[in-house]
Amino acid sequence: MTSRAAARKSWTGALVGLSSLIGTGACVPGAPPPRLEREPLLRVGLVVGAEQVRIAGRGSLAITGRTSFNLAADQEVRVVAVGAGVGLQGRGEGAADEIRFESADGGRLILVNGRPYRGTVVAYARGGSLYAVNEVGIEAYLRGVIDAEMGSRSPNEMAALEAQAIVSRTYALANRGRFRTDGYDIRATVTDQAYVGAGRESPLGVRAVANTAGLVVTYDGRPASVFYHSTCGYSTAHPSEVFRSVRGVEYLRPVSDRRPSGGYYCDISPRFRWRVEWDGAELRNILRGTVPSVLGVEQSVMDVVRDVYTHQTGRSGRVTEMRISVSSGEVPVFGPDVRRVLQTPEGRMLGSNSVEFTATKNEAGVVEHLMVTGAGWGHGVGMCQWGAVGRARSGQSATAIISAYFPGTRIERWY
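-> structure tokens emitted (415 positions)
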């Protein structure tokens, strides 16, 4: 029961949400890749595996598929899978391999399921399911990322927005082709980076992208493998504490977020400290669902919960092995799975694995109440977004912020 092999019986996939941001730009042998002559296009998966997608244009829309025609402004079409191809619902013209939607009015926005995007939208099918991909220049893409990732910010926090723009650009470049077999580069969700198109662009976010155009974080002459998260809580994490398959590199190591004057740069975050509590029945029911699905351990093993405690911590102090005591022994839960196994009563993933456990037991030695106090929010590796805001407020530049969270890297113009 306590063997690592038993606990890993059915471990699959990456962590969900922002905690799963795993770049593919880690250093590999060979000559550094060449700089780009111009701004690259990015293929962003907006709709992945749907039954239909609604598309319209703020202006006239040029549609090219089995036939070509223009759609008047604000008129909507529905794209559906037709056999191995795609078609427009109600037009009866058969299937096309793909249908392209472009502005016929000089770059007006395209609406996909009501949300506006720049660039071109391409619809196609894979395995009978529909995909809609936004082909857009990387700088326009970043304008739809900054505010989605950083929220509404003030002018004195511009350096944090610029740091986010540089890091997000680096991530996008390093991960081009991540979903190549499905026909796009990256997704529009926090599986990669939150991208909401033109609807959330703000003057400050647009300026941050323009101020940093073409700049990326590099290490050993190539785009770095960058990570970021909401709130580190006190220190960033080492990848080995929270990820399974991230290659260790010098610039991804624990970095203290302590301010010289006291406190922490990210203590302005609403998720700097938090607490979750379960009664005994809630805890057992949650673990009877998560332990089998995440660890592959039989549900019957979770008969009673006698304890939940930290067995081992990592370099930054985060929990790298939690143990659940049951009648037949102990179930080990390693760092990458702690947050998924110990879900909140509302069914959400735990905020971070920088946690402390306090279990109250009844006379029979069974947990009747568990409290977890936590620090920070997210996986903790790389740039702390709230820490970046705090550093910007203290007068640090975007370069200083990135140097703090990715020590030993450089910022270089890539195109």
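The two ends are 53 Å apart (CA to CA).
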